[in-house]
UniProtKB/TrEMBL annotation:
Domain Thiamine pyrophosphate enzyme N-terminal TPP-binding: 45-130
GO terms for MF: 3D-(3,5/4)-trihydroxycyclohexane-1,2-dione hydrolase activity; acetolactate synthase activity; flavin adenine dinucleotide binding; magnesium ion binding; thiamine pyrophosphate binding
Example of a GO biological process term: L-valine biosynthetic process
Highest taxon above the source species: Bacteria
Organism: Vreelandella sulfidaeris
Any one of the GO CC terms: acetolactate synthase complex
Record protein name field: 3D-(3,5/4)-trihydroxycyclohexane-1,2-dione acylhydrolase (Decyclizing)
CDD domains: TPP_PYR_POX_like
Family: Belongs to the TPP enzyme family.
PROSITE patterns, A to Z: TPP_ENZYMES
Length: 616
């Protein structure tokens, strides 16, 4: 057997280089790049290995470990999980800074390879700088924080352990069911240890998407269930994108005239003006899809785990409706008392097209869905129109940015009130034109995520819509975007606080407290007014402050013509959101309170809970 002597870190990099993926007939690197912030836990080991491979495997430097991991996650999501970025940081705070991003990837079922440095496996110099010592278990390090937010975790304490660990890591990253973040904790001394690896371990391997056909019995039962339905509603989730099922979805719903509601992850599965697209569903969904969900006798869920925002905390969907869940993961397919149809969405939908033959929903249901769709689109036109004020609401800003976006441009968002407005109001015909991180709804994802999206789709304009709260939480990757030449257009909506949670606080009966800056402890002069345009300029971006929607529209044209990242700040009214559409969300209200408003909110809460229990 021929061998090659490499350090553990060099072997990791060489193995990554050997992994390829076939995408629409083209063979590409599975790992197109690595994000790295070096420290004493990874600079001498993995840093040396990445330097030697820098021509084949680019290494990108970021300004924040969480931010670079968000960029890696957004890159993979934009490419429908077909390529994977790796992220490495030093032992200690550099590593734990990535834990939040690992949770983002885990919740959203997105692949990213985390390679955090770890403490010395030999323990001879313990305790080293930044080492977290555990008094009762010396095998624990701060990297154990990754365990609950990783789909696969391993700590490499001997260089030869890579022979069994790396194939498992890549299996998880490329598996349609297991897909999610992988963490390989790399002790800084073991990174530098050498081993005689078999040469065949580094032979090129081309990965292809695995497609699982539906079980024949489950398929027959599903066909029977659908044929009994008179008022069906299909709900398209993120899995429809990841499986490449969109042409099959279009064919199915067009042939059988099925109304389609989209989740946050599923938005873009059909063009917004497709005759079967009735808008988005759930807590932040549109009025048309939600009205149909409350009356439907069958929900056909495709590639969605039906989280509480999609299901209205189980209080939105007709309690007597049946649920057919088409999902590659049986874990998700059995949720909500669903009848499982486990299989790849593309293959399964194609089979349903054949098996359903001449079945059609009730004609009155088809007409009802069409009417509701027209009404909802008129509502969207109305609420996104410029009212001509100097303090616009979020919906007006969404409308302006949407009008500025081209057919293949992309909007990015994650947290606050904007995801609700965008899910309801953003219109796109491009299947990847809507990028929302709403599984974890992580504040700070937006700007870094925008960089990753731009890297994945360099020919698209990437519009990042972000509130002042999220901007202040994590903005450093604006500098990264300028440094790397990955232009984003960021629109910062400044309502001087956490407006979304302020509104929720009031809905639950509470007074304004610790959310809007005016309701927070501060000096007598109050909290400072942040100059977001000046701040962005200091990070290297072009920027400006605008005062109304007309000025915003003009600024967006300048931003599109610019040669680097452009940030536009606009003051907005944080007290309002789009009331049309939407559904109840289960946010627990105190059973006992001295506040009359809280008691009133509790009564309302209990009424919704009664409906929720009907769906258990």
């Amino acid at each position: 057997m021929n061998t090659i002597r490499l350090t553990m870190a060099q072997a990791v990099v060489r193995y990554m280089l050997a992994q390829k993926v076939e995408i629409e007939g083209d063979v590409k690197p599975l790992f197109p790049g690595v994000w790295a912030i070096f420290g004493h836990g990874n600079v001498a080991g993995l840093g040396e290995a990445l330097y030697q491979a820098r021509e084949q495997l680019p290494t990108y430097r970021a300004h924040n470990e969480q931010g670079m991991a968000h960029a890696a996650i957004a890159y993979s999501k934009t490419l429908n999980r077909q390529q994977v970025m790796a992220c490495t940081a030093s032992a200690g705070p550099g590593a734990t800074n990535m834990v939040t991003a690992a949770a983002v990837a885990h919740v959203n079922r997105l692949p990213v390879l985390f390679l955090p440095g770890d403490t010395f496996a030999t323990r001879i110099p313990d305790p080293v700088l930044q080492q977290v010592e555990n008094f009762h278990d010396h095998t624990l390090t701060s990297n154990d924080c990754f365990k609950p937010v990783s789909r696969f975790f391993d700590r490499i304490t001997r260089p030869e352990q890579l022979l069994t660990s790396l194939p498992q890591a890549v299996r998880v990253l490329t598996d349609p069911v297991e897909c999610g973040p992988v963490t390989l904790a790399l002790p800084q001394d073991i990174q530098t240890f050498a081993f005689d690896y078999p040469e065949h371990f580094f032979a090129e391997r081309v990965h292809r998407q695995r497609r699982q056909s539906a079980d024949r019995h489950e398929l027959e039962s599903a066909v029977q269930l659908i044929r009994q339905a008179k008022k069906p509603l299909l709900v398209a989730g993120g899995g429809a994108h990841y499986s490449g099922a969109l042409p099959a979805l279009d064919a199915l719903v067009s042939q059988y005239r099925l109304p389609v509601g989209e989740t946050q992850a599923g938005k873009g599965a059909l063009p917004w003006d497709h005759t079967q697209n009735v808008g988005t569903i759930g807590v932040t969904g549109g009025a048309a899809a939600n009205a149909l969900a409350a009356e439907a006798d069958l929900i056909i869920a495709v590639g969605t785990r039906l989280g509480d925002f999609a299901s209205g905390s189980r209080a939105l969907i007709n309690p007597t409706a049946k649920l057919l869940s088409i999902n590659v993961a049986s874990f998700d397919a059995v949720k909500h008392k669903g009848q499982a149809l486990v299989g790849d969405a593309k293959l399964t939908l194609e089979e349903l097209i054949t098996e359903l033959e001449d079945w059609q929903p009730e004609e009155s249901w088809i007409e009802q869905a069409a009417g509701l769709r027209v009404d909802w689109n008129q509502t969207v036109d109305k609420v996104t129109t410029d009212r001509g004020t100097n303090l616009p609401c979020d919906a007006e800003v969404v409308g302006a940015v949407n009008r500025a976006a081209g057919e293949r441009d992309i909007v990015v968002c994650a947290a606050g009130g904007l995801p609700g407005e965008l899910q309801k109001l953003w219109r796109t015909r491009f299947d990847r034109g809507y990028h929302m991180e709403y599984g974890y709804s992580c504040m700070g994802y937006e700007l870094a995520g925008g960089v990753g999206v731009k890297m994945a789709k360099p020919d698209s304009e990437v519009f990042v819509m972000v509130g002042d709260g999220s901007y202040l939480m994590l903005n450093s990757e604006i500098a990264t975007s300028v440094m790397l030449g990955h232009k984003i257009i960021a629109v910062v909506l400044d309502n001087r606080g956490y407006g979304c949670i302020h509104r929720l606080q009031q809905f639950c009966g509470g007074p304004g407290f610790n959310n809007m800056l005016e309701d927070c402890l501060s000096v007598d002069e109050g909290a400072p007014k942040t100059d977001f345009a000046a701040h962005a300029a200091a990070l290297g971006a072009l920027s400006e402050q605008v005062g109304n929607i007309h000025a915003l529209e003009q600024a967006l044209e300048r931003a599109k013509a610019a040669d680097r990242s452009y940030v536009i700040a606009i003051d907005t009214d944080g007290s309002t959101d789009t009331q049309d559409g939407g559904a109840w969300w289960d946010v627990a209200v105190p059973e006992v309170s001295e506040c009359a408003e809280v008691n009133t909110a509790r009564e309302r809460y209990e009424a919704y809970k009664a409906r929720q229990f009907q769906n258990l």
